Amino acid sequence: xxxxxxxxxxxxxxxxxxxxxxxxxxxxxxxxxxxxxxxxxxxxxxxxxxxxxxxxxxxxxxxxxxxxxxxxxxxxxxxxxxxxxxxxxxxxxxxxxxxxxxxx
Length: 104
Known about the structure:
Elements: H1 2-19, H2 25-39, E1 50-57, E2 60-67, E3 76-81, H3 88-97
Antiparallel strand pairs: 1-2, 2-3
């Protein structure tokens, strides 16, 4: 039940976070910490989180997917970049340069 409550809270938080482009630094830190806690959950081996992250910057848009069921180095994958599916070379570069580490 606790996992469901966390998932529900996170889903609601992401909707609010995504729907409001202007968030306070405190809100942003809270969401980032919550996502970090989900990504590196080791307490409950039955919980396998998956979500997509859509990043929009002035010169680039990117969709990435997180899958906790995969080994650490393979948990993040690049889905699209600037609206296009990445080729094999870009995927290799992404894996090499985007190693994620737990937030501290």
